Amino acid sequence: MDSRLIIGVVLLPLVLMAEEEPPANQMKISTKAFSPTRPIPERFTADGMDVNPPLAIGGVPRQAKSLVLIVDDPDAPMGTWNHWLVWNIKPGTTSIEEDSVPRGAVVGANDAGSAKYVGPSPPRGTHRYFFRLYALDILLDLPGGSDRRSLDDAMNGHVIARAELLGRYARE
User: Fold this and answer.
1) How far apart are CA 130 and CA 25, in angstroms?
2) Residue 119 has pLDDT above 50, yes or no
3) The pLDDT of residue 22
4) Where are the domains of the chain?
5) pTM of the predicted structure, to 2 decimals
6) What's the topology of domain 24-169?
7) Are strands 81-89 and 106-107 parallel, antiparallel or unpaired?
8) Is residue 158 classed exposed, middle or buried when 0-12, 13-18 and 19+ CB atoms within 10 A define those classes?
9) Is 70:85 a contact under the CB 8 Å cutoff?
10) Across residues 35-51, what is the average pLDDT?
């Protein structure tokens, strides 16, 4: 038997298996409410209803045990300002509806000191708001109301995928 045929027969199943596996970091977070070129609507800011925008999630790795969502503003005058911290989101979650927290998820303390979403409220100029989604290989043993530093420490070494959505907002 031709050695090329033997190699082909052995390698073909490996190639087919590799094609079935999604790329390592195909996780996505998106919204129809805004885009990097279309500002965050006032409804989702402190100037409006101050509710979280609807978010869509996809491509979560099969080995994920939980998801974490962090919304922050790196352009704040005193340094990065945390607007929303949510963890232990079930990995099968495909959306977060407007003005809601996924069932069973835990909410941490934002930089205003409350355990809820606080929308954009830039003092001046256009600010960037990052909606960062992380897939973890564990459930976090972290109580509700914990701060960003505690969340970062708990996540350390457990992130298996990440995705990011950028929004912008400026007061007129």
Assistant:
1) 18
2) yes
3) 40
4) 24-169
5) 0.85
6) Phosphatidylethanolamine-binding Protein (3.90.280)
7) antiparallel
8) middle
9) yes
10) 96
